[in-house]
Amino acid sequence: MYAVKELYYTIQGEGYHTGKPAVFCRFSGCNLWSGLEKDRANAICKFCDTNFWGVDGLNGGKYTLEGLIAKIKEVHVSGEEMFIVFTGGEPALQLDQALVDGLHAINATMAIETNGTLTLPKEIDWVTVSPKADTEIVVTKGNELKLVYPQIEHSPEDYEQLDFEHFYIQPMDGLEVEESTKRCIQYCKDNPKWSLSIQTHKILGIL
Question: Would you say the pTM of this structure is higher than 0.85?
Answer without folding.
Answer: yes
